[in-house]
Backbone:
């Protein structure tokens, strides 16, 4: 029989492992309800896992095709139906968007894992590169929260690294163990167990360890200075470790993944995307 202390330790160990994944299976909204055209895509990861994604085509007002394509990686909770509004404005600005649900999220099959999510991003890139309406030389990965962490590691080490023109990470954390340690330290019952992440968290996909290898792919870090979920110092740490070209935008008054609520920030992001996907740069 396990002692109460061992039971608590077991719960903490399993809790640390699952801290990053809070998927919901129910899709509660669609782009169509907001007057935005989209296509449901079924992708297959290299290990056979079936994945769900939404492709939002650019609104080609000028007749010149999409300006670029954005692969959107959402945060660790719920699914694309609650996150797509972060990028719902992009098609009107001339950008294709592929919004991916990781394994175990929404109607995607499987169970979430950091290794599996890298396979999921790979499947999304493969899908984009196979589309005739996507310019393979104008693809940007945009991730929010854990999606930003995943994007940095993938673009630094993924099979299609050469096809990524830029990475945008909004409200990303710098290290899986560090952010877990900070969360444990912030609650009096878990404070004594701050050391656990160094034994229980898989840090093989740490953005802080990967970000230097991202260069010369341009990196944009966006972070609100009132982010109470992932403190600003995580983006500062990533910026310090990144090679050039790199940018850090600190958005006054913005909380977690709220920076793009500002029209000024969205306009600035459009300029960034165009600057780094232009053939004339």
Residues:
């Amino acid at each position: 029989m396990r002692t109460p202390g061992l039971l608590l330790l077991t719960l903490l160990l399993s809790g640390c492992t699952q801290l990053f994944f809070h998927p919901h299976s129910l899709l509660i909204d669609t782009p169509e309800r907001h007057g935005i055209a989209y296509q449901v895509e079924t992708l297959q990861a290299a290990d056979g896992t079936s994945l769900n994604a939404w492709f939002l085509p650019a609104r080609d007002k000028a007749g010149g095709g999409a300006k670029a394509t954005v692969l959107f990686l959402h945060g660790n909770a719920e699914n694309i139906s609650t996150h797509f509004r972060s990028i719902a404005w992009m098609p009107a600005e001339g950008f294709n968007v592929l919004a991916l649900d990781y394994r175990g999220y929404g109607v995607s099959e499987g169970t979430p894992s950091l290794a599996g999510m890298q396979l999921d991003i790979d499947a999304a890139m493969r899908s984009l590169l196979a589309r005739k309406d996507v310019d393979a030389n104008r693809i940007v990965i945009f991730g929010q929260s854990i999606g930003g962490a995943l994007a940095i590691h993938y673009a630094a080490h993924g099979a299609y690294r050469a096809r990524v023109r830029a990475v945008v990470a909004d409200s990303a954390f710098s290290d899986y163990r560090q952010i877990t340690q900070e969360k444990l330290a912030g609650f009096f019952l878990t404070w004594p167990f701050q050391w656990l992440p160094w034994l229980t968290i898989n840090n093989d996909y740490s953005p802080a360890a990967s970000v230097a290898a991202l260069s010369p792919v341009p990196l944009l870090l966006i972070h609100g200075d009132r982010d109470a979920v992932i403190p600003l110092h995580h983006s500062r740490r990533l910026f310090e470790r990144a090679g050039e070209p790199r940018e850090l935008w600190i958005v006054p008054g913005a909380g977690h993944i709220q920076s793009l609520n500002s029209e000024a920030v969205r306009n600035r992001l459009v300029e960034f995307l165009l600057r780094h996907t232009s053939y004339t740069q």
